[in-house]
Design goal:
The complex is a heterodimer of chains A (347) and B (276).
Chain A (H helix, E strand, L loop, with lengths): L5 H9 L5 H10 L6 H43 L11 E3 L2 E3 L9 H7 L2 H32 L6 H8 L1 H4 L2 H12 L5 H8 L11 H29 L3 H9 L4 H12 L1 H16 L3 H6 L11 H11 L5 H28 L5
Antiparallel strand pairs in A: 1-2
Helix pairs in contact in A: 5-10, 5-13, 10-13, 13-16, 15-16
Chain B lengths: L7 H29 L18 H9 L2 H32 L5 H11 L4 H14 L6 H26 L2 H9 L4 H12 L1 H17 L2 H6 L8 H8 E2 L2 E2 L1 H32 L5
Antiparallel strand pairs in B: 1-2
Classes of the chains: A mainly alpha (347), B mainly alpha (276).
């Protein structure tokens, strides 16, 4: 919730007094046509009134424009060409070789969409995202629920359980890679002790999928616990007391008070973690390199593979994959927001 | 928090659940730590340390490029954090306090950039950095990481500044401070928890980033830690001993920073939800 202090700041800055209404009016209506003087005058006024705000946002606008806006535009352009390692502009020694790639229109897209590789990867990416987010959410919610009670050692439990968050993901992934080692890893050693055959964690397509999801859940639960704990603590105790008076069972209290109470926060964290998981690169890239075969390759890692692992590097197709990922995510976000709005969520 | 009496089985179940959660959360990093003190040949023994040794650490620090990687990472992370937090906080302040033309579009852009997959940007960024001669340069990575960290941090800082009473700004102006003066002298000191959280977020993001670092930095001495760690365990061979020692050294600074920040982190993240 922002407070409009622009007015008083602006009075201090240019010594003039403007009413909030009038200011908004000028900003919205723009310039009346055919009045250059008025136009420059207005621009000048706007500038003297807002220059400090604009000065404060300039660095971020520059960063976003130059390093997100420009590459994004170029990425879209590249996806419409046949650029690859052999025909982009490059420098070899002192020779500058100019780019020789051609504009091919939507060819890359039709090729990708008519190929089963994309749909296979999309299917697994969807499964990966839904699997990771739902398990992470359920675990996070139940653990937060347990922590949100008077229990001995509460702060120890809480700190211990957010430890995975404090370790860089790539370090944790390597730790898991060691645990998952098929011949000597401790997971299989323990199973062996229990008389169970070794599990080919990372070399069997199905187990590899289980393994990457497990690791991602392990990485994601701490964030979920903290977010849900915050949401749970915001629910007033009186609601539970009133429910107790009415003789509600624990399950009834959970479904009628706890769940509605955490809904606003849940919808946000679920959206966030869906987007993060969809684009989660390190877990899969480092744990299985997308393997075995390309069984655990999600869209993002596959796009990366196209331009940085495979040879020759196929920049155009990779960019087209990237654009498709962006389109998918935007669609998802739109639909999700619309669904939330229908249910009366405010944001 | 509720304070009702629990039955004995419920209590046991509660502790059992929490203990299992704790064990699962702690085991992988602890096992990494334990393994790092074992001789290379015993990297995969299930026993706890039998012959305690620092060999792995010696080897990693003395015979590999680890210190170079560490230096590269540190440079990149500090650069990103200092620049990122600063420009995110000025933006957050402008968004929180002023109404100006271009504000709504900016907020939308900040929101939208957060869901940009790096897959869209990585190829053109690679080409752009290549033409600017910034591949293999820490500066190139700093610029890249700013795009990841800044939009989110600006949002968070806006949230924090929203919780700082406007009356403080007003009293600053009454005392004759300019908007920048108010921001720098009055508001920034009050925003320390927010700065800690965004700084922490930026630090962790940059310290743990893998994709850009792997793609943009080549040559053993130019890698960051994320790239360097991959060289120990890859498809050509596995030096688990060195990997564990390096991993521990990488995890410790992150864990320390996290330890300092987590109090703010938790209160910061819940600030929006908990009425105070």
């Amino acid at each position: 919730m922002a407070v409009d202090t622009g007015r008083s700041a602006e009075t201090a800055a240019d010594g003039e007094h403007h009413s909030g209404r009038g200011r908004r009016g000028t900003a919205k209506n723009g310039n009346p046509p055919g009045r250059r003087r008025a136009l420059t005058g207005q621009l000048g006024r706007q500038l003297s009134r807002h220059w400090y705000a604009w000065a404060m946002i300039t660095p971020v606008v520059l960063v976003i424009g130059l390093i997100i806006g420009y590459p994004l535009g170029r990425g879209v352009f590249l996806s419409l060409t046949d650029a690859d390692e052999s025909n982009v502009a490059r420098t070899i020694g002192v020779n500058e070789i100019p780019a020789t790639y051609d504009f091919v229109g939507l060819e890359n897209y039709t090729e990708i969409l008519s190929d089963s590789v994309f749909w296979d990867r999309l299917g697994w990416t969807a499964l990966w995202t839904v699997g990771c987010v739902s398990v992470t959410f359920l675990l996070g919610l139940s653990l937060a629920n347990m922590l949100n009670r008077q229990v001995k050692g509460r702060s120890f439990y809480r700190i211990a359980m957010i430890v995975p968050w404090g370790i860089p993901a790539f370090v944790s992934v390597f730790a898991w890679k060691m645990l998952f080692n098929e011949k000597y890893g401790i997971l299989n050693e323990v199973l062996d002790g229990g008389g169970i055959d070794a599990v080919p964690w990372l070399s069997d397509p199905t187990w590899a999928k289980v393994a990457v999801i497990a690791v991602n859940v392990w990485l994601g639960v701490p964030f979920m616990i903290v977010a849900m704990l915050g949401a749970l603590q915001a629910i007033p105790d009186e609601l539970y007391e009133a429910a107790d008076m009415d003789g509600a069972s624990p399950w009834q209290r959970f479904t009628n008070i706890t769940l509605p109470g955490v809904r606003a926060v849940s919808s946000t964290v679920i959206l966030l973690s869906t987007i993060w998981t969809f684009n989660m690169f390190p877990v899969i890239y480092l744990l299985t390199q997308g393997g075995p075969g390309d069984n655990t390759e999600i869209l993002v890692t596959y796009a990366y593979r196209l331009s940085f692992v495979n040879s020759p590097r196929d920049f155009a197709t990779s960019a087209a994959w990237g654009v498709l990922i962006l389109v998918l995510l935007s669609l998802f976000t739109l639909i999700y927001r619309r669904a939330l709005r229908k249910q009366g969520e405010v944001w | 928090m509720r304070t009702q009496k629990r039955s004995r089985p419920a209590s046991v179940g509660l502790h059992a659940g929490l203990l299992i959660g704790t064990a699962v959360a702690l085991f992988p990093p602890l096992w990494l730590l334990v393994t790092s003190f074992k001789p290379k040949s015993e990297a995969f023994s299930t026993a706890l340390v039998k012959d305690f040794t620092f060999d792995n650490y010696d080897h990693v620090l003395a015979d590999t490029y680890f210190l170079d990687w560490f230096g590269n990472s540190l440079l990149v992370v500090l650069g990103t954090t200092v620049v990122g937090v600063f420009i995110a906080s000025t933006t957050g302040y402008a968004l929180s306090r002023f109404r100006f033309p271009g504000m709504r579009p900016l907020m939308w852009v900040l929101l939208i950039t957060q869901m940009f997959p790096m897959a869209v940007l990585i190829v053109p960024l690679y080409n752009t950095l290549a033409t600017m001669g910034l591949l293999n340069q820490p500066v190139g990575l700093i610029i890249t990481y700013l795009t990841v960290a800044v939009p989110f941090c600006a949002w968070m800082m806006k949230g924090f500044f929203d919780t700082v009473p406007v009356s403080i700004d007003e009293s600053g102006r009454v005392d004759g401070l300019s908007p920048f003066g108010t921001f720098w002298r009055l508001i920034m000191p009050l925003a320390k928890p927010g700065l800690a959280v965004t700084g922490f977020y930026t630090f962790v993001t940059a310290w743990a980033e893998v994709a850009y670092a792997t793609a943009f930095m080549t040559g053993e001495e130019n890698l960051t830690l994320a790239g360097g760690l991959q060289t120990f365990v890859n498809r050509y061979g596995a030096d688990w001993g060195s990997m564990t020692a390096a991993a521990v050294i990488i995890a410790v600074p992150a864990a320390v920073v996290f330890g300092f920040a987590q109090r703010y982190l938790v209160s910061g993240m819940t600030a929006g939800a908990v009425k105070s």
